[in-house]
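Example is below:
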Amino acid sequence: PPSKTARSGKAGKRKVARRAATTLPLPPRPRRDPTLKPTVTFQPLFPNRAAVATALPQEYAPETTPMEGVPQEAPVQASMGERPTLNVTDLQGRPLNLEQYRGKVVLIDFWASWCPPCRREAPQVVRLYNQYRSQGFEVIGISRDRDPRAMHAFIRQVGMSWRHHFDASGQVLDAYSVSGIPHTFLIGRDGRLIAENLWSAELARALPAALRRR
């Protein structure tokens, strides 16, 4: 009979194959106007990396939808403790930046309504938001949708009542070196990065400790 190591190796290969079969490419990006200035500025967030980072072992990371035209490189450890800044507008055209959330724990959530993993994770984020909002937890949604009607419909359907930015051009994703969605950054009360790509159970475990920090 095959050894335990051989059986676990075959199971791992089947798991990777199933994950690869469920990912979808992002739609083509619209041609950018070279006269437009970037809508996002931040201090160097991950100065020592060339690929998207993750704070979790790969086997615990959610499946993601890869970004078209972005090389898919192996994840490396994130440089925690940096102070990202975000300067965009929300769906009502109002300024949206991290300074407005000073003293709160903030989840920056990159998502899209057409992304199956994002659709599965969204109700869990809503649950955690409703549970911890009174304790200082906030969410900023960065939508990679191309159709604003689909985005608004999904926001209403799931109850994602926090503020969102419509990133149809992909500028914000580029600035944060995001190559696949869903993708999240958890920012502490002091404005520093705590963790990256925490989802569902991992995010639920991280939030109480993050909210206790002052």
Observations:
- The longest helix spans residues 4-21.
